[in-house]
Amino acid sequence: AARVLILHAARADADALTRVYFQGTADERRAVLHALPHLVPGPEALPLVEDALRTNDTRLVAAALGPYGARHLDAHAWRHAVLKCLFTGVAVDLVADLARRARGDGELARMLGDYAAERTAAGRTVPEDLHRVLALTEAAPTRETAGPDVPHGKES
């Protein structure tokens, strides 16, 4: 929290945040990811979120799926990030805007079903969070989550 406050007090822009992120420790990277929604209004810091989602550090994955990631990840990347949470053990409670983004998402439902089938076929347990997310996909989409105002599922 202190690192986020320091970045905020410094009024760090996307370029400064990018430098801190790539030169920083895992804790500093998390601070940058947590600061993004407060300091970068547009999608220009999305490469930092994408980088965090490529790591195996579950703390970075969780931070990447905060409010900034929820607002700027396109539907395809967001779905894969949710799936990554399930297979790395990141609690889906940490995914910002999960209910709204998952609502009525048939493609996410298909991906979750495929993942559950693979786990079952391999004799492995299906994460409980998968059932929670799958239930969210069953709700009908709203104008906020789908439609002509949201091109390709990207919310920005």
Strand content: under 5%
Instruction: Compute the average pLDDT.
Output: 88
Count of extended strands: 0
Note the main sheet.
none
| Large-scale geometry | elongated
The DSSP helix count reads 10
Order of helical and strand elements: HHHHHHHHHH
Task: Report how far the terminal alpha carbons are from each other.
Answer: 26 Å
Gyration radius from CA atoms, angstroms: 16 Å
Helical percentage: 55-70%
Tally of domains = 2
Low-confidence spans: 144-156
Computed structural class: mainly alpha
Task: Give a structural overview.
The radius of gyration is 16 Å and the shape is elongated. The chain has 156 residues and is an all-alpha fold. The protein has two domains: 1-72, no CATH class; 79-156, no CATH class. It is built from ten helices and no strands. The protein starts with a helix and ends in a 19-residue tail after the last helix. The longest helix is centred in the last third of the chain and has 16 residues, at 106-121. Helices cover 63% and strands 0% of the residues.
Outline of the structure:
With 156 residues, this protein is an all-alpha fold. The protein contains ten helices and no strands. It has helices at residues 2-9, 14-23, 26-39, 46-54, 58-64, 67-72, 75-88, 98-102, 106-121, 128-137.
Task: Supply database-style keywords.
156 residues; mainly alpha; 10 helices; 63% helix; disordered C terminus; isomerase activity; isomerase; Sugar phosphate isomerase
